[in-house]
Amino acid sequence: MTPSTPDLFGYKKYWAQRFGIAHELPMSLSEMDQLNWDSCDIILVTGDAYVDHPSFGMAVIGRVLEAQGFRVGIISQPDWKSAEDFTQLGRPNLFFGVTGGNMDSMVNRYTSDKKIRSNDAYTAKGEGGKRPDRAVNVYSHRCREAYKNVPIIIGGIEASLRRIAHYDYWSDKVRKSVLMDSKADLLVYGNAERQIVEIAHRLANKEAISDIKGIRGTVHFVKQIPVEWTEKNSTSIDKPGVINPPIDPYQAEPSCDKKPSTSGTEKVIQFTRSIPNKQRSKTVIRIPDYEAVKEDPILYAHASRVMHGETNPGNARPIIQRHGSRQIWMNPPPIPLTTQEMDGVFDRPYSRLPHTQYGNANIPAFEMIQHSVNIMRGCFGGCTFCSITEHEGRIIQSRSEDSIIKEVEAIRDTSPNFTGHISDLGGPTANMYRLACKEKKIEESCRRLSCVYPGICENLDTNHSSLIKLYRRARALPGIKKIFIASGLRYDLAVESPEYVKELVTHHVGGYLKIAPEHTEDGPLSKMMKPGMGTYDRFKQMFDKYSKEAGKEQYLIPYFIAAHPGTKDIDMLNLALWLKSNGFRADQVQAYLPSPMSVSTAMYHSGKDTLRKVSRKADDMPIPKSIKQRRLHKAFLRYHDPKNWPLLREALKKMGRSDLIGNGKKHLIPSFQPKGLGTQINTNKSSKFKTKHTHPINFNRKKNKNNNRNKKSTRQV
């Protein structure tokens, strides 16, 4: 049973509440003087430009701490080459809070091909190079250099995804927990309001940072396991060895009180006996040491499987991992916020604008989300490549309808350049608002990674009526011309509610609706834990039907991933043929990027299907790692680009598919090569290379949703 937890806004306020609310959190001593502050209680250091908007993590944490009575200052994008910028607000009374920003600093700076990006959407004027690589580590070191004895607490997406030993794509090796590398005192993971508020109050009550242990959603050091705890070796839960059928991944124990269904694609698997609740509540799981997982990809994959099995707040156990002479202790995930607490977080007095120090400088991420409204958190989709669940969790946390409407009205009434259009009303996913397990007891005992794979769980409530009601109320507001739904739509859920699809298609699509099948072939899809194309076809039929009924010409824009673990060359060829037959041309494409700690990253590193129990004798799965193969897979997605034709011709000949090379409609690529190969050729300027009814599309996510599928990264804290 999920333990009770204090109300987020139920703490006695800190004495500094007497100073009142700041219009915007200060970034300089002069601003502190205007507020009559002699010091900051807490200083947040971030790799982003400071935007006082609930889509930016430092603003959310800062405002929530302010609501507790603390004086919070912001150090934004400091010069990390010395400690000077880290002293600009003086010494914090309680702690430094350090985050790399809304995006992982490595994803922010490097493409999936490890090339340096030229811009940064979270920086004024989009300027690149304003944050260091591995920003959490660098900022923490500088904070320590500036004020040696001030506690340092790290958090945000970069810390969340590196909370244990993790594979690092950019260095191609397993790195230590970021808590070790940063030399911080404490790590908070996930949306960190609960943790950071409790920590702040305990430090304010003169507790030592070294004594603050056991808080959910935190990682800290331990010298030894407390006497009242029982240690359980991870190999007794998921022993690397015999391979079981890949159904209900990661289930070492029953997913719920009901027996698993044997209908459809599901099969019966054997569960181990559950530990009694009292004993379980004081059991810590020991995963292999850093030194072991660093050298052994199979043990790394094993540790990843065990870690992902302990992510449900209702039944997760702590995890311990040794790093040399030290040990880190990862507590279970935080208890999800209630609707009332979510409202409290989003109802804070955000200015919803960049800090005034930026003047009129454009901050691209802000421009994209300034008129969007976040209505929920979390995702129970369980896509193996995605960072949402590792960070925000699988339990959906929803705001109240009144709170959402209040924010829409605030945008309408206060935004200086509002034109009547809400750019998004969603979250990590568009249509999981208020969706949950039918029974709380079942939810708390579930150990599945996904509620919708391999099929929608019979215990999941897929009723979209609350979301439909919200859409209708919001679009009926005076002054609101259009509300777009731009978040990632789960069309496998949407088809369960034709009324929702009709509302969406009739009123909330601006000509194009972006969805993410990710692939067409069963092999890659099974490794992604994504539904098959049959569900896409079903949704497309509904989309076309309701678009026609509304008298609108609208299109679906599908996203696909190249080079995901489990993808063969033939899979990409078949995807290219599907694109051509359906008249799609990708303007830009997305290649898989192994984000730290994801399930598919464990596949990438180990070469094994980690949705099954891993074994050294298990067959290797195809992993497109070489630069040439990754380029080939991307080239298949852009089969229409003449620059890719030489590479594709070579590949098709090797694959025995020379029949697809020619100048007819049934051929994938032509046999001739136009002049000027190697220079940029814009095929859109000439109909010579176009297929009838073909329209160019852009498969890239918005830049504020990072390319390793850290969707709605601006929502993350």
CATH class of the domain at 15-217: Alpha Beta
- Arithmetic mean pLDDT: 89
Estimate the helix proportion, in percent.
25-40%
Poorly predicted ranges (pLDDT <50, ≥5 residues)? 242-255, 257-275, 678-717
The major beta sheet can be summarized as: 10 strands, mixed
Secondary-structure-derived class: alpha/beta
Distance between the termini: 26 Å
The fold-level CATH name of the domain at 15-217 is Rossmann fold
Query: Rounded to an integer, what's the Rg over CA atoms?
Result: 25 Å
CATH superfamily of the domain at 15-217: Cobalamin-binding domain
What global shape is seen?
Answer: globular
Discrete helix count:
24
Supply the CATH architecture of the domain at 15-217. 3-Layer(aba) Sandwich
Brief descriptors of the model:
alpha/beta, Rossmann fold, 3-stranded parallel beta sheet, disordered C terminus
